[in-house]
Design a protein that fits this description.
882 residues, alpha/beta, 27 helices, 29 strands, elongated, RNA-binding
Length: 882
RNA sequence: GGAAGAUUAGCUCAGCUGGUUUAGAGCACCUGCCUUACAAGCAGGGGGUCGACGGUUCGAAUCCGCCAUCUUCCACCA
């Protein structure tokens, strides 16, 4: 079959992916082999592939393919996450575009739309992963809201409730007025935001509710909340404000009377030292309110608009109200001054809306015991973090974990299985039937229709924390006494988890908690944290910046293998990734290099009667050792999750060692055949290289592996065993390196003197140079090599290969002055170096303290240096006499 | 404000418990080549007082202290 001069990725990738699917090569079933398991970090069901996914899933795929080729039963479970807030807000937006408001729909109607949306857009991202070559076991695809997994979530809720770890409480929560739900502390991003510091006068009341002419000044960034003020608070140690003790002041505009109280919370040197206390709209104020038994007056509704309790500006959005009230305060003479001010403001991670602290009833899961268990898992090393530094972050969070607010005021998600009796009491059961039974125990006459289920759904992480368990056995979570099914027993704990450090608490920590609670052990052995993908100049990839390329376009242009290489090349473990398209081009170039080396090998004609050349024999001996050497390094890199280092080692083995040295050394002259032994070895090495690189470049390797010989239907490189490192003689590597350096020396001279590559040079070597690699030097350098006791020619260029002196005679081509100058420079350097070494050796304390091996090495440096100096001097002498 | 990590060639990074490193790699750069596998290529080449300053040591990119800069995480003063 004729091979094109350039590798065309687009042509082969779809073909082989279809082939892999057809033969279910990605599918895994428990058997007697050692399992290797990865669960995918489930992307949002309605998500679209971005560069972060490309990085993460490339790494996952490399690990899983590598394990497969090591003979393990590799299983990569794919799936998607229902992503409550993200998905619901997308559905709401779509309905809005259709002219439908969520408020006009019943829960059932809304969910119908949501499921339609999910069917339409859900799993696009999984299709996209196929383009990347991901070898997921698609038969095991899971969705966090599929019936079985939802059941698992409900069961765990009931389990923890009955254990007494889930409780309902009124808390100040982070309210997202756009998504209309509470979000957890972790989903709030604090950003420094420019605002204003308004200094407001509160006049002292005369006791009858009338203002006197005395006043105090408070500083606030939120003047629209003054109507909810419950007190003015000063520090008890602040003498400036002692005159206020026992006084009452009037809230501007509405003239409501509130007391002045004292609390240590107030910082004396911040603002004016007077704090307006608004328990309903600030976390700290709420706590002060609790201590001083203050009234809680909630004047902002769920949409962030002022309600009728505010008395003024009713129905206005909080930010509009702020502008308006400032004007009103100014007109009323209460505005003393306005300062520019930058303060941290919380934003919703999902909607970017400014978070409104809001009091509401929420469900919480106690974290103390779970956090303690999960900390131990990592501290004991049963789960390892790579890089290790994340253990610190993890520990800090675990030691300070606050109870987890698990309720969300949404419809898309698992509905909380709490059922309210008409009198407000409630029962928690997995099904309405069980709930009715439980309710009857409290209230015998109760009927099914009297029960009302809680309106809220559970936080998405409350389902994804079960992922490593529930994808295999959804029956188990919530029923830790159940025997794990066959799959769970075999695949759990999973081997490695690859994810971003941004979800270490959301997801990783909580999976560990669930794993310990329900399985009694860690959910994975290693967590490899990738960096964040940034653009060339270090900015995060984002839609708004438009600096994020579409991975599918890149795959189309350069091929999936090139994209995978490009991502891995720049992803040293634990660092952020600076994405640069140049790296993908490098990947494409590598594909092409592999392709062309195959064209060369494939183009050889074999003649069984031809004898093997000595150069080929030497090259084979060397490459055999080199391959083993590199395989051992690659294994080590994989063990340490140094994927980019593993890739680079193979890259250099393929390009520099195999193509640039090995193939050139064994390559017959144009039109000549190659002997059988060399051909077989060459093809064998090529296959070994394909296998080595297959986890990183699955497509081109399958294409070429299939092309190498007639393969049977159903054969694949995917299940070939990766080459194993064999013991080798390190001297073989050293000898070949000597040859390489000799060739480089000769080539250097050629380059310098502008001698055509076709002109054969005479290279003389002094000393006992290893004979076996001499044919390689002759072939690669286009030289004849002669071992001599002394150089007879005067005119020429000498150079050193380690301790061997070499000389190329060049009558008439040498500029004596130049050569002398060059040699003198080398000589000066050597003399300085020698002086340094001798300085060390003559230092008694060095000789006394340093280990023998180090001293021995210094002595070797000394003698090597001496012989180099000697050589340089004799060359100089010869040149000067010429 | 607290914590963790980083700082090595133009860029991205190796360099693990101090001495086989006279500081390396890939890319980029410069010079010469369309040499019948490959110009997405081949051959050759230049480039770093290892962030600053102290200390420990016979010996420091490597260990310690301090400073500077950067990144991330946590907390957050109305």
């Amino acid at each position: 079959m004729e091979l094109a001069a350039k590798y065309n990725a687009a042509e082969v990738e779809d073909k082989w992916y279809a082939y892999w699917l057809k033969h279910k090569f990605f599918h895994s079933e428990p058997d007697e082999r050692e399992p290797y398991t990865i669960v995918i970090p489930p992307p949002n069901v309605t998500g679209i592939l971005h560069m972060g996914h490309v990085l993460n899933n490339t790494l996952n795929d490399v690990l899983i393919r590598n394990a497969r080729m090591h003979g393990k039963n590799a299983c990569w479970v794919p799936g998607t996450d229902h992503a409550s807030i993200a998905t619901e807000s997308k559905v709401v937006a779509k309905l809005k575009a259709m002219g439908i408001s969520k408020d006009d729909l019943t829960r059932e109607e809304f969910l119908k739309y949501a499921w339609e949306w999910k069917e339409e857009h859900g799993g696009i991202i999984l299709k996209q992963l196929r383009k990347l070559g991901a070898s997921c076991d698609w038969d095991r695809t899971r969705f966090t809201m599929e019936p079985a997994l939802s059941e698992a979530v409900i069961n765990t809720f009931v389990y923890f409730y009955k254990k007494g770890w889930i409780y309902k409480g009124v808390r100040m929560v982070n309210w997202d007025p756009e998504a209309l739900t509470a979000v957890s502390d972790d989903e709030v991003i604090h950003k420094d935001t420019k605002s204003h510091f308004y200094h407001l006068r509160y006049y002292i009341s005369d006791g009858q509710g009338n203002p006197t002419d005395k006043y105090l000044v408070i500083a606030t960034t939120r003047p629209e909340t003054i109507m909810a003020d419950a007190a003015i608070c000063v520090n008890p140690n602040d003498e400036r404000h002692h005159w206020l003790r026992g006084k009452k002041v009037l809230i501007p505009l509405i003239n409501r009377e509130i007391p002045v109280i004292e609390d240590d919370y107030v910082e004396m040197d911040f603002g004016t030292g007077c704090l307006k206390v608004t328990p309903a709209h600030d976390v700290h104020d709420y706590e002060i309110g609790l201590r001083h038994n203050l009234e809680v007056l909630d004047i902002i509704d769920e949409h962030g608009k002022l309600n009728e309790k505010a008395r003024i500006l009713v129905g206005e959005d909080r930010f509009v109200a702020r502008k308006k009230i400032v004007k009103m305060l100014e007109e009323a003479g209460n505005l003393e001054k306005v300062e520019e001010y930058t303060s941290p403001v919380g934003y919703s991670e999902r909607t970017n809306a400014v978070i409104e602290p809001r009091l509401s009833a929420q469900w919480f899961l106690k974290m103390d015991t779970l956090a303690k268990m999960a900390l131990e898992t990592v501290e004991s090393g049963r789960t390892k973090f790579i890089p290790e530094k994340y253990v610190n972050t993890y520990r800090h969070w675990m030691e300070n974990a606050r109870d987890w607010c698990i309720s969300r005021q949404l419809w898309w998600g698992q509905r909380i299985p709490a059922y309210y009796l008409p009198d407000g009491r409630y029962v928690v059961e997995a099904t309405p039937e069980a709930a009715l039974e439980a309710a009857k125990a409290i209230c015998p006459d109760i009927k099914k229709e009297d029960l009302r289920q809680d309106e809220d759904v559970l936080d998405t992480w409350f389902s994804s924390w079960l992922w490593p368990i529930s994808v295999f056995d959804p029956e188990l979570p919530g029923h830790p006494d159940h025997q794990p099914n066959k799959d769970l027993a075999y695949y759990y704990p999973t081997s490695d988890l690859v994810t971003g450090p941004d979800i270490i608490f959301f997801w990783v920590a909580r999976m560990i908690m669930a794993g310990e609670e329900f399985m009694g052990r860690e959910p994975f052995s290693n967590v490899y944290f990738t960096g964040i993908v940034r653009d060339k100049i270090g900015r995060k990839m984002s839609k708004t910046l438009g600096n994020s390329p579409n991975p599918l376009d890149l795959i189309e242009t350069y091929g999936a293998d090139a994209v995978r290489i490009g991502m891995l090349l720049c992803s040293s473990a634990g660092n952020d990734i600076f994405y640069d398209e140049a790296q993908i081009k490098q990947g494409a170039a590598f594909c092409n290099k592999i392709w062309n080396s195959y064209r060369l090998v494939k183009g050889f004609t074999v003649d069984e009667t031809v004898a093997q050349t000595p150069a080929a024999a030497a090259a084979i001996r060397w490459f055999d050792a080199k391959l083993s050497d590199t395989v051992a390094q690659v294994e080590d890199h994989y063990r340490k999750f140094r994927i980019s280092d593993a890739l680079m080692a193979i890259y250099k083995l393929f390009w520099d060692d195999y193509c640039a040295w090995y193939l050139e050394a064994i390559k017959p002259a144009f039109g000549q055949p190659v002997d059988k032994a060399t051909y077989d070895a060459t093809l064998g090495y090529f296959e070994a290289l394909l296998k080595l690189i297959h986890p990183v470049m699955p497509f081109i390797t399958e294409e070429l592996w299939q092309n190498m010989e007639e393969r049977k239907e159903g054969e694949t490189i995917m299940y070939a065993r990766t080459p194993a490192a064999k013991p080798f003689d390190p001297q073989v590597l050293v000898n070949f390196e000597l040859a390489e350096e000799a060739v480089n020396g000769a080539r250097g001279i050629r380059n310098q003197k502008n001698i055509a590559p076709k002109e054969t040079l005479e290279l003389k070597v002094k000393g006992d140079f290893p004979t076996e690699v001499i044919p390689v030097i002759e072939k690669m350098g286009n030289v004849t090599v002669e071992k001599v006791a002394d150089f007879s020619e005067k005119q020429g260029v000498g150079f050193m290969v380690r301790t061997y002196e070499m000389f190329v005679a060049l009558n008439g081509l040498v500029n004596v002055e130049e050569e002398i100058a060059k040699l003198e420079k080398d000589l000066a350097y050597q003399q300085k170096f020698l002086a340094g070494v001798r300085g060390k050796l003559s230092n008694e304390r060095f000789v006394a303290h340093a280990p023998a091996a180090v001293i021995e090495n210094e002595r070797k440096k000394e003698s090597d240096s001496l012989s180099k100096i000697e050589s340089l001097e004799s060359q100089l002498k010869a040149l000067r006499n010429s």
